[in-house]
Amino acid sequence: MRKSIATVSLSGSLSEKLTAAAGAGFDGVEIFENDLIASPLNPEEVRRRAADLGLTIDLYQPFRDFEADPSDDVLDRNLRRAERKFAVMERLGADLLLVCSSVSPAAIDDDALAAEHLHALAERARRHGIRIAYEALAWGRHVSTYDHAWRIVELADHPALGTCLDSFHILSRDSDPKGIEEIPGEKIFFLQLADAPRIAMDVLQWSRHYRCFPGQGGFDVAGLASLAVHAGYAGPLSLEVFNDVFRQADASRTAVDAMRSLRALEDSTGLAPLPAPVVPAGVAFAELAVADTEPLHGMLAALGFSRTGRHSAKPVELWEQGEARVLLNTAPSAGHSVPSSGAGREGPALAAIGLETADPTASVRRAEALLAPVLPRRRTAGEAPLDAVAAPDGTELFFCRTRWPGHATWTDDFEPVPHEPAEPVGISRIDHIALTQPWHHFDEASLFYRSVLGLHADESLDIADPYGLFRSRAMANADGSLRIALSVAPGPGDPGVPLQHIALATDDAVAAARRLRERGAALLPVPANYYDDLDARHEPAPAELATLRELGILYDRDEYGEFRHFYTATVGRFFFEIVQRTGGYRGYGAHNATVRLAAQHSNVTR
Ligand SMILES: O=C(O)c1ccc(O)c(O)c1
Ligand SMILES: [Mg+2]
């Protein structure tokens, strides 16, 4: 279907917004009135600019507080006001005006009067070749639901009057969208799509500040869009997103994020299927960019890793234990995901993740269809093609197979290094990878991992840091063999420490902690207060509590099972976590993250 975006969703001047929308491949725009009023371009120039960019102007909006004021004077003035807007629209070449339900205290609760007024407006619009789309604002004075707006449109019964459905207003009020199917498709004049995180707050504030693109929040926007299409709606899918972060972010980048969201929506609804996602089946490797491998050698050896290989063409070492593989890359060009604040530039940074993928070529096709930058294809020494795309934060994602029978393996690129097998610590694989996102790319990143890799996302969590609040959101595949935890530091220039880490899985955290302590590995200390609170919260057996306290192991429990975990000291801005999941525990010990962050602050700054 045609795709549009409201100019309010993008940052910049009207002309910058149009350029960004066209650059991302949108077919049209909704012009938000304030953007036009503030523009130095006159309507004819805007019309020309849009046309030059290949954009149609699909809607002009909003026209406010029109209907159901009982005063004839007010009606006259409103109709005169509308005539002025029709004139602007004619200059713009726009033929659809959005009228949102009145919030005026003077409006009365009278559907017949509202219908009469809208009929009069539509009749005047018709003479200009203009149509009216009436939309229920969730906070409208008397009309706040889509079915009520539709009843009034039906009552008014004018060919130039239809309704505008906006997924935010419908889903934020928990209205049942099923009723959309009852509306004749040709009377749905416009469809605005926006998602939002599920937060309990005043609906107007929620709408004006926290909307996001479909797939980034908690609403079933795709389901709603499907209902409208089934009802016969054939206009554009249009994104209308009021969001404080997008208002400041780079418009071109936001527009691409927006387009990815619509493509993913069309895919998931079957409107325009894309190559199916190839959900990765685990982590093949995690690659750290390091200026100097030395500080990590001791840590990896203490953790029971052996240096098994050296890349035949690049300064990259392979360290292994069980199915856990860590690459250390000292090439100056590595390190794309080094936090943009510049903090810790010298320290290790997660630069790439190898994803165990049944069909790497299909993975890339999916990623490309969702506008992920595809990185130049590399060939391994063994002639195995290595396909990679860039995640929004610059982390390289490699689609690969590790020692699958009958397939080339990336490990053939590594020449074996003679080594004494390290004394293992019982680490079997990588449990999860925690990536810190730039604060203004967080929603983009969560949509990326969900849509490109087909991961499912947990709810966002807020985690208190001594110097701010982190948002955190985990993504995983169905069996938990791939887990990526995204977090965001409070803001640019904040004193929070943007840390990244790799969590390693073990079947016995107590044994692993004991062995690491015996080897003198530097582990993160946990305050005694934590164990007093743990006793109060979970009442572990006294012997277990004593062991956890002695070894500095943290504990959590959910409805499925238990979680025991501990951390190494940080190297630069990087650390390892060792985790033991039992009984299908699904989380990440979020409750303990506050204690961890506080301990790391004193650890890092000391
Ligand atoms: O927040 C508003 O006022 C507003 C205006 C126009 C819309 O289409 C909308 O969904 C909200
Ligand atoms: Mg709207």
Automatic annotation (TrEMBL):
Keywords: Isomerase, Lyase, Metal-binding, Pyruvate. Its cofactor is a divalent metal cation. Mg(2+) binds at residues 432, 501, 577. A divalent metal cation binds at residues 135, 166, 192, 240. SUPFAM superfamilies: Glyoxalase/Bleomycin resistance protein/Dihydroxybiphenyl dioxygenase, Xylose isomerase-like. Pathway: Aromatic compound metabolism; 3,4-dihydroxybenzoate biosynthesis. Residues 282-402, 429-581 form the VOC domain. It catalyses: 3-dehydroshikimate = 3,4-dihydroxybenzoate + H2O. It comes from the Bacteria. One of its GO terms (biological process) is 3,4-dihydroxybenzoate biosynthetic process. GO terms for molecular function: 3-dehydroshikimate dehydratase activity; isomerase activity; metal ion binding. It is an enzyme of class 4 (lyase). It holds the Pfam family Glyoxalase. InterPro entries: DSD, Glyas_Bleomycin-R_OHBP_Dase, Glyas_Fos-R_dOase_dom, IolE/XylAMocC-like, VOC_core, Xyl_isomerase-like_sf, Xyl_isomerase-like_TIM-brl. Its EC number is 4.2.1.118. Belongs to the bacterial two-domain DSD family. Catalyzes the conversion of 3-dehydroshikimate to protocatechuate (3,4-dihydroxybenzoate), a common intermediate of quinate and shikimate degradation pathways. This is 3-dehydroshikimate dehydratase. It comes from Streptomyces coryli.
